[in-house]
Amino acid sequence: MFSLLLRGFVLGFAVAASPGPIFFLCVKRTIVQGRLAGLFSGFGVATADAFYAAIATLGVTALTTAFAAGRRPLAVVGGVILVVLGVTILMARGREATATKATNGRGAAWAYASTLGLTITNPATIVSFAALAATLGLGTGGSFLRPSLVVIGVLLGSVVWWCVLVFGVSLLRTRLTPKIVRGVSTFSGLAIAVLGILAVLSAFSG
After folding, report:
1. Is the per-residue pLDDT at 194 higher than 80?
2. 91: exposed, middle or buried (C-beta count within 10 Å: 0-12, 13-18, 19+)?
């Protein structure tokens, strides 16, 4: 049983650590808005990862098929949102560089909800979790405990990665000058917008 928890943890950590738009968004929010915004952004991703892991490992065949069939429109929606988000970051980078602000409860809730929504609209990660389920012989009925352990492991692995990233970035936050903050925001905005464009293009070419 422990091996299932460990495998889920490793997969959750690995999927979360894969470079992508949320990585840049989380780094940017941590630098500009503080540790709380970064953590809740990461927790939103971890929730989505656990959701997809649950669908794959608990054998919810209908939902798995629905998400697989709807990958193209979801990729388009998610890509467009990323492009808009990237452009918004680029337009606001000057103000953020000179006036960083701490995140309150409302801001933390938005940070969580926004990354949860962005990750849900990018269902490609379900392929990884479905492959894990097939490898471990899950998703075909039987005990509820075994797939549950995998889902818990995925959630913990993802949460640990985002905590490591955010706390690491926050250690550097006080040493960053406005010029560096503006540079980080510019790079993050460009990266997020480009990844959004690639997501849209891949949806039409796939």
Report:
1. yes
2. exposed
Domain that holds residue 67: 2-73+100-173
Calpha distance 15→9 (Å, rounded): 10
Question: Residue 101 corresponds to which tokens in the numbers above?
Answer: 């602000």
Q: Which residue is it, tokens 């918004």?
A: 88
Q: What number of other Cβ atoms are within 10 A of residue 123's Cβ?
A: 21
Residue 43 within any structural domain of the chain: yes
The total domain count for the chain is 1
Residue 65 near residue 186 (C-beta atoms within 8 A) = no
Q: Which residues contact 174 (CB under 8 A, 6 or more apart)?
A: none
Best-predicted range by mean pLDDT among 78-82, 121-125, 171-175, 190-194? 190-194
Say if 11 falls within a structural domain: yes
pTM: 0.77
